[in-house]
From TrEMBL:
This is DNA/RNA helicase, superfamily II. Keywords: ATP-binding, Helicase, Hydrolase, Nucleotide-binding. It comes from Mesorhizobium plurifarium. GO terms for biological process: DNA repair; replication fork processing. Residues 119-273 form the Helicase ATP-binding domain. InterPro entries: Helicase_ATP-bd (IPR014001), P-loop_NTPase (IPR027417), SNF2-like_sf (IPR038718), SNF2_N (IPR000330). GO terms for molecular function: ATP binding; helicase activity; hydrolase activity. The keyword Nucleotide-binding applies.
Length: 550
């Protein structure tokens, strides 16, 4: 009989390991990174399928004494894990056809085959980042993955402006599930419901409730909102929701907004073990470039996440987006007024102390972006006027309130409305309705406030990125507001006005690197997309405009 290297027993929902000799304890902590390095003598691990399979594997090298009933449970869990993995491989075969019966959709609604595939994969692996392209129905897939399952009640965490849309446009319209939108950060007695809709802005007040395991599943919509990680208030709260849910699902067509290393923070809420610790991840996958952690081989990382069955992404054959970069005039007086302060900040960045240089760099970045937006605000407005005068409805993306003020003044002969971070949910809904059903034009939208917004594509196919963003995927989300099912035009046109001044040239150069990082992780093996640019349309509009001007 093989000698035992210690003891393993099940206590409640934890595996307890004890009496391990020092060399085995060291090896245990090397393999199971969740165990703190300083912990000694007694160790505990969760009673999950995957952990039990890993313990069974560990015991092939270091046998542990245990009761037969516990051994049967361990091997049962290992078997379930292996069956789930085999099931996941089967689901991803090109010939797979789901036989899952869905109960909970209203008459006339169901999941498409590709949505059923995502649902079945999620149920097999219990954690998934669903990165399907805009318009492929990630929200509906999430609902189909929850209805009629043991994973209710579930918590749905969304950007603030999407809570009503989830309930009105999807849950109430498509399903028989009951939903309740969480009001505020102070816990109260929750009414009966299948789905509880949280906002990223209020989950921090509900961590004690989440820690009880009340929510059997958690869905993070637009999960890129958590890309800054668990050291933020919303990030730390989201981790509690994730750790205490049996089923974890993240939704985003654009999970990488900046450099590829952001994926580590995203996977922290889906499967924290798949990329290891931050130190392990950066050592294996990254290098520092200009002070930023950059993924060395984004394609290899993207392939790994797919092979680990924690990331699923399908692309749709959508209409082309005609991206037209166009240089516009800038206000030289604004530029001249800003030059002296910018020069002073730049000097601090170059020669100041560590603290001074860091603060000055942040101030210079914010100042340069604002001044660039102001300097080109009237040039951008002139472009938008030309588009509107040709009969088009226009979505105008921006960021700074000061820039919005210039635009509102420039468009006072039209009917502009704002959909930004300063408007509440009712004001945003009013602006959306006015744009879709009324004569509002243009709709001035914050490039970071419209993620997931649906319905604008019914009346609009023209977008102007009035201010650039350090995250290129932010602008892709902006274009995605009109590049969605329901769009009747054969082509979307996105105008990208820029100036050869201020922050625009630097942002465009840096974003080229970030776009390649996102491409490799999202779509490994794909060639960098060639920008589809057809300037004939803008030239035709310019000629029409000139003909009207005496």
């Amino acid at each position: 009989m093989t000698a035992a290297y210690g003891r393993l027993e099940l206590q409640g929902n934890r595996w307890i390991l004890s009496d391990l000799p020092p060399h085995v304890a060291i090896r245990l902590k090397d393999v199971f990174r969740k165990i703190p390095k300083h912990q000694t003598k007694v160790f505990d691990l969760p009673f999950t399928d995957e952990m039990s399979a890993d313990l069974s594997w560990f015991m092939n090298r270091y046998p542990l004494a245990m009761e037969e009933k516990d051994r049967a449970l361990l091997e049962g869990k290992r078997s379930l894990f292996e069956q789930a993995r085999a099931r996941a491989e089967e689901i991803m075969l090109p010939t797979f056809k789901s036989t899952t019966q869905l109960f909970g959709f209203r008459s006339g609604y169901d999941l498409y085959d590709m949505q059923k595939q995502a649902r079945d994969l999620l149920h097999a692996v219990k954690r998934l980042l669903l990165g399907d392209d805009v318009g492929l129905g990630k929200t509906v897939t999430a609902l189909g993955s929850l209805m009629g399952t043991p994973y209710l009640p579930a918590a749905i965490v969304v950007p603030a402006h999407l809570a009503d849309q989830w309930v009105k446009k999807f849950i109430a319209k498509l399903t028989f599930m009951g939903a309740h939108i969480i009001d505020g950060t102070r816990p109260y007695d929750l009414p009966p419901a299948n789905l509880y809709i949280f906002r990223y802005t209020n989950i921090h007040g509900w961590t004690d409730i989440a820690a009880t395991g009340l929510f059997k599943a958690v869905v993070f919509d637009e999960i890129q909102d958590l890309r800054t990680g668990a050291h933020t208030r919303k990030g730390a709260a989201a981790k509690v929701f994730s750790d205490n849910a049996e089923l974890r699902l993240g939704l985003s067509a654009t999970p990488i907004f900046g450099y590829g290393s952001e994926i580590w923070n995203i996977m922290l809420y889906i499967d924290p073990d798949v990329l290891g610790s931050w130190e392990e991840f950066t050592c294996e996958w990254c290098s520092i470039q200009r002070g930023k952690w950059v993924v060395n081989d984004p394609d290899a990382l993207g392939s790994y996440l797919r092979e680990a069955r924690v990331f699923l992404r399908r692309l749709r054959q959508g209409r082309p987006i005609n991206r037209i970069p166009i240089e516009v005039d800038f206000d030289e007086e604004v530029a001249a007024d800003a030059e002296q302060l910018a020069r002073a900040l730049a000097m601090k960045v170059v020669s100041g102390s560590f603290v001074e240089a860091g603060q000055a760099a942040r101030e210079l970045d914010a100042f340069a972006r604002l001044q660039t937006g102001l300097a080109k605000a009237k040039g951008v407005a002139a472009l938008v006027k030309m588009l509107m005068d040709s009969g088009l409805k226009v979505i105008l993306g921006g960021w700074h309130r000061e820039v919005y003020s210039v635009w509102l003044e420039e468009f006072k002969a039209y009917k502009p409305m704002l959909y930004t971070g300063s408007e509440n949910a009712k004001q945003k809904e009013k602006a959306e309705r006015a744009f879709v059903d009324g004569d509002c034009n243009p709709l001035i939208i914050s490039v970071r406030s419209g993620t997931g917004l649906d319905g604008l594509q019914n009346v609009c196919w023209t977008v102007v990125a009035g201010e650039l963003d350090w995250a290129p995927e932010v602008l892709e989300q902006l274009y995605g507001r009109v590049d969605r099912p329901g769009q009747t035009q054969p082509e979307i046109t996105a105008y990208i006005p820029y100036v050869l001044y201020g922050s625009d040239p630097t942002i465009m150069a840096v974003n080229a690197i970030k776009k390649d990082q996102a491409r490799g992780i999202k779509d490994p093996g794909s060639a960098p997309a060639k920008a589809h640019t057809d300037e004939s349309r803008i030239k035709q509009l310019a000629m029409q405009f000139l003909e009207k001007v005496p």
